[in-house]
Amino acid sequence: MAQPVNFVNKNTNQVRQGFMGFSWTALFWGPFPAAFRSDWKWFLIMLLAGIVTAGLSGLIFCFIYNKQHIKTLIQEGFAPEGSEDFLQTVYAYAGIQKPTS
Fold first, then answer.
1. What's the domain count of the chain?
2. What confidence tens digit (pLDDT) does each residue in 8-49 have?
3. Has residue 68 been placed in a domain?
4. For residue 58, what are the domain limits?
5. Whose CB among 2, 9, 65, 78 lies 3.0–4.6 Å from 73's, allowing a Cys bridge?
6. Is pTM, for the whole model, over 0.85?
7. Do the domain assignments include residue 33?
8. Residue 94's Cα: distance from chain center in Å?
9. Closest residue by Cα to residue 48 from 38, 61, 37
10. SS3 for 96?
């Protein structure tokens, strides 16, 4: 089961949720979890890949989509909430250097 992570944009106070781990929703629902999260870039990528591969790309995206969604949130200015150790884990999972501040 994927671990939930809350993200907050300090400029707009907008709150979003991401998940670390395997994406069961992407496995069973294909690109629709990306649409529900308003992640339109990945929705289109997953939709087109699913059409081209007759749905087999879903077996790849279920392993990588949650990480890509977290990377997108961080790039859009969202920061994860939690203890310092948890923040290190989130940034390490996303493969992004934790900002110093």
1. 1
2. 999 999 999 999 999 999 999 999 999 999 999 999 999 999
3. yes
4. 23-94
5. 78
6. yes
7. yes
8. 9
9. 61
10. coil
Q: Cα(84)–Cα(56) distance, rounded to whole angstroms?
A: 38
Which residues, in sequence order, are bridge partners of residue 5? 18
Identify the bridge partners of residue 6 per DSSP, sorted by sequence position.
Answer: 17
Integer-rounded Cα Rg, in Å, for the chain is: 14
| One-letter amino acid of 91 | Y
Cβ 56 vs Cβ 71: under 8 Å:
no
Among 22, 14, 17, 61, which Cα is nearest to 42's? 61
Local structure of residue 82 (DSSP, 8 states): S
d(CA 97, CA 85): 14
Describe the crossing of helices 84-94 and 58-75 by its angle, rounded to 10 degrees: 120
